[in-house]
Design goal:
The complex is a heterodimer of chains A (292) and B (279).
Chain A (H helix, E strand, L loop, with lengths): L1 H15 L4 H17 L4 H17 L8 H17 L14 E6 L6 H14 L4 E6 L6 H12 L2 E3 L7 H14 L4 E6 L7 H13 L4 E7 L5 H13 L3 E5 L9 H9 L3 E5 L7 E3 L2 H9 L1
Parallel strand pairs in A: 1-4, 1-5, 2-3, 2-4, 5-6, 6-7
Antiparallel strand pairs in A: 7-8
Chain B lengths: L1 H20 L4 H12 L11 H15 L15 E6 L6 H14 L4 E5 L7 H12 L2 E2 L8 H14 L4 E5 L8 H17 L4 E9 L5 H13 L3 E5 L9 H9 L3 E5 L7 E3 L2 H8 L2
Classes of the chains: A alpha/beta (292), B alpha/beta (279).
Bound molecules: guanosine-5'-triphosphate (2 copies) and magnesium ion (2 copies).
One guanosine-5'-triphosphate sits at the interface of chains B and A.
C-alpha cells in the first residue's frame, strides 16, 4: 500500500527532519508505481509526478507535518484537484423534458446503469422513462424491460427490427403524451473506432436534443480508457462519466485519466448489480482509493 | 559519448511507454527495463528504435515463455467447458462462439445457461444457441445454477453429446459468496461427471488493467483456472495483462475473441500476440 511504503521511506527522513534529494526521488518512484498499478494512464502519471516534484521542491517543510505526511498531503491535493473538487450533478432541462443518452464500450454496464439512473431520478421527483435503443445485442430489450420493472420506470421499446431513429422519435412522442419528463436512452455497446456506430450516435444527437451524454465505463479498465474517452468526447461530445463496478477491488485510476484528458466530470459510480447500486461520485474518496 | 547515454534514456522511456500502454503492468515492465539497462551502451548509438523492438520481442519470449494450452476435445468422453469471469467480459458471447467453433470441427455441444441470475441472460444464450445451431438446455430464471449444471450433465449423457458448454453469471472475485457458488458448480461437475474432461476457462476483457492479475489469481485460488480466453481484441486495448498472468500464474491463453459475430474467435498464438502488442 502506498501510504505504508511512503511511511517506510520517510521514517528515516524523520531523524534528519528534511527531505533529501534521494528520499524525494525514492518517494516519487513509489508514487509512480502506485499510480501505474492503479491503472492511471502513463502520460497522466508522468505529468502528475513532475507536478509533485515541482511542488515538493518549492514548498518549505511544514513545522507540523513530517516530510512523509507532507508528501502524502501534497499527493492527495494534486489528485483531488484533478478529479474535481465537488460533486457534479445531472443538468436537467429547465424548459421541458430532459433527454439523457448513455453510451460506452460493450459490457461496460450501460443497460444496468440506465435502470439504476431511472430509480435515482425518480427519487429526485421526476417521472423518467427508459428507451431501449440497442437493436444489436440478443435479448437487450428484455434485459432493459426487466431492469426497468425493478426501477419502477416504463420502458419504451419499439421492435428490434425498427431503426433506432424511428424508435427515438416514437419514444419522444410517447413521452409527451404520457408526461414523462426525463428520457434515458440505453444504446448498444460500441467501439470508439467503429465509424458506423459513432455516426449512429451523431444521428441520435441530431434527431432530438440531448441534454446529457454520459459515457459509461468500467472501473476495471486499464491504459486504453484515456484514448477511448478522448475519442468518444472528440467524436460526439460527452458531458460526463459513470464509472461502474467500483464494488470490486479495481483501484480505478481510469477516473484520473479520463478527467484530466477531457475535463469532464464523473457524475455517478456503479457499486453493484442491484437497482439501488448507484452513488454520486465523491472525488476525495476516489483519490484515497487510487493511492491504495 | 554523452549522445549514447541520451539515446539510451530516450529509448528506455519509449520502451517503458510501449509496455505500460499495453497493460503488461509496471512490475513486468521494470523487469524488462532492467534487462535493457545491462545492454552495451554503444548499441544505443544505433538510432533505430525498431532494432530495440526486435530485442524487446525476444526478451518477452524469454521472460514469458508461452504456457502450453491443453484444451482439446476427447470424443471418447464427456468434455465440459466451464466459462467464468467478472461482469461483462464476453462470457455468454464466447459460449456461443465456442459452440459454433466446435460444431464446425464436428463436435456437437449442449449449451447450458447456468447464469440464472442476470436479467435476460437465459434468453441471450438461447438466441446464441440458435445462431450456433446447437441444442440449448432450458432453465428457469432464479433457479439454482448448480442444479442447472446437474441437469445439463444428465441431458448431455442422454443425448450422447460429447461437449457441454456451461455459461455462468459474471461475478467480481471480491464476492466470496459468489466465488463459493462457482466452486459448488465445479464440485457438482466433479461428483456427477468424474470421468469428464473439465476445462475451467476464465474470460478476460482485453481492456482490463492490472485488476486482471487479481481476477486470475482469485479465480485460480477459488476453483482453479485451466486457461484464459481474451476477448474484445478488436478494440484498441492490447490485453498485455495476459502475459503477466502467464508469467506469474502459469495460466495459458487458449482462445481470443475479436468481434461480435459468432465466428470472431480463434486459437491464441503468442508470437502473433506479441507482434501485435508491440505495433
Ligand atoms: N458488480 C457490478 N456489476 C455491474 C455493475 N454495473 C453493471 N454490472 C454488471 O456488468 C454486466 C454488464 O452490464 P450491462 O448493463 O449488460 O452492460 P452493457 O454496457 O449494457 O453491455 P452491452 O449492452 O452489451 O454493451 C452485467 O453482469 C451487470 O450486472 C456494477 O456497478 N457492479
Ligand atoms: N467488440 C467486441 N464485443 C464483444 C466481444 N465479445 C463480447 N462482446 C460484447 O460484449 C458485450 C458483453 O458480452 P456478454 O457475452 O454479454 O458478456 P458476459 O461476460 O456474458 O456478461 P455478464 O454475463 O453480464 O457478466 C456484448 O455486447 C457482446 O456483444 C468481442 O470480442 N469484441
Ligand atoms: Mg446493454
Ligand atoms: Mg453473460
Amino acid at each position: 500500500r502506498l501510504s505504508e511504503k511512503l511511511k517506510q521511506i520517510l521514517n528515516k527522513v524523520r531523524e534528519k527532519g528534511k527531505i533529501s534529494e534521494n528520499d524525494l526521488k525514492q518517494s516519487l518512484k513509489e508514487i509512480k508505481l502506485a499510480l501505474l498499478e492503479a491503472d492511471v494512464h502513463y502520460k497522466v502519471v508522468k505529468d502528475f509526478i513532475s507536478k509533485l516534484e515541482k511542488l515538493a521542491n518549492q514548498e518549505s517543510l511544514s513545522k507540523t507535518l513530517t516530510p512523509g505526511q507532507q508528501i502524502i498531503k501534497m499527493t492527495h491535493t494534486v489528485l483531488t484537484e484533478i478529479l474535481g473538487e465537488k460533486q457534479s450533478k445531472i443538468r436537467f432541462n429547465e424548459e421541458g423534458p430532459t433527454n439523457i443518452l448513455l453510451i460506452g464500450l460493450q459490457g461496460s454496464g450501460k443497460t444496468t446503469t440506465a435502470a439504476k439512473l431511472a430509480l435515482q431520478i425518480k427519487k429526485m421527483g421526476y417521472i423518467p422513462a427508459l428507451i431501449a435503443a440497442d437493436k444489436i445485442r440478443p435479448a437487450a430489450i428484455e434485459q432493459l424491460q426487466i431492469m426497468g420493472e425493478k426501477a419502477g420506470a416504463d420502458v419504451f421499446a419499439g421492435g428490434v427490427n425498427q431503426p433506432v431513429l424511428n424508435t427515438i422519435h416514437e419514444a419522444q412522442q410517447w413521452a409527451k403524451e404520457h408526461k414523462r419528463d426525463v428520457l434515458i436512452i440505453d444504446t448498444a455497446g460500441r467501439l470508439h473506432i467503429d465509424s458506423e456506430l459513432i455516426q449512429e450516435l451523431k444521428d441520435i444527437k441530431n434527431a432530438i436534443p440531448i441534454h446529457e451524454t454520459l459515457l459509461v465505463l468500467d472501473a476495471l479498465m486499464g491504459q486504453d480508457a484515456l484514448r477511448m474517452a478522448d475519442d468518444f468526447n472528440k467524436k460526439i461530445g460527452v458531458d460526463g462519466f459513470i464509472l461502474t463496478k467500483l464494488d470490486g477491488d479495481a483501484r480505478g485510476g481510469v477516473s484520473l485519466s479520463i478527467r484530466s484528458m477531457t475535463g469532464k466530470p464523473i457524475k455517478f459510480t456503479g457499486v453493484g448489480e442491484k437497482i439501488i447500486d448507484l452513488e454520486p461520485f465523491y472525488p476525495d474518496r476516489m483519490s484515497s482509493r487510487i493511492l491504495g | 559519448f554523452s549522445d549514447a547515454i541520451n539515446d539510451k534514456g530516450v529509448f528506455l522511456e519509449k520502451i517503458e511507454e510501449l509496455l505500460i500502454l499495453s497493460d503488461i503492468g509496471p512490475n513486468t515492465t521494470a523487469e524488462i527495463l532492467e534487462r535493457f539497462q545491462s545492454i552495451n551502451l554503444h548499441l544505443f548509438r544505433v538510432n533505430d528504435f525498431n532494432h530495440f523492438k526486435e530485442l524487446l520481442k525476444q526478451m518477452l519470449h524469454e521472460l514469458i515463455p508461452p504456457q502450453v494450452d491443453t484444451s482439446k476435445i476427447d470424443p471418447g468422453m464427456l468434455n465440459i467447458v466451464l466459462i467464468m469471469g467478472v461482469n461483462g467480459t464476453g462470457k455468454t458471447s464466447f459460449a456461443g462462439k465456442l459452440a459454433y467453433y466446435y460444431k464446425s470441427k464436428g463436435y456437437d455441444s449442449l449449451l447450458v445457461p447456468a447464469d440464472t441470475f442476470r436479467a435476460g441472460a437465459i434468453e441471450q444464450l438461447h438466441y446464441l444457441s440458435k445462431e450456433a445451431g446447437v441444442e440449448f438446455l432450458r432453465a428457469a430464471p432464479g433457479s439454482d445454477p448448480a442444479s442447472v449444471v446437474f441437469d445439463g450433465i444428465q441431458s448431455a449423457r442422454a443425448k450422447k453429446k460429447v461437449l457441454l458448454i456451461v455459461d455462468t453469471a459474471g461475478r467480481l472475485h471480491t464476492y466470496h459468496n459468489l466465488m463459493r457458488e462457482l466452486a459448488k458448480i465445479k464440485r457438482v461437475i466433479l461428483k456427477n461427471a468424474p470421468d469428464a474432461l473439465l476445462c475451467s476457462t476464465l474470460v478476460i476483457d482485453a481492456t482490463t488493467g492490472q485488476n486482471g492479475l487479481f481476477q486470475a489469481s482469485n479465480f485460480k485460488e477459488s476453483l482453479g483456472v485451466s486457461d484464459i480466453t481474451l476477448t474484445k481484441l478488436d478494440g484498441t486495448a492490447k490485453g498485455g495483462i495476459v502475459l503477466t498472468i502467464q508469467k506469474e500464474l502459469s495460466i495459458p491463453v487458449s482462445f481470443i475473441a475479436f468481434g461480435e459475430k459468432i465466428t470472431d474467435m480463434c486459437r491464441y498464438n503468442q508470437d502473433k500476440f506479441i507482434e501485435t502488442l508491440l505495433d
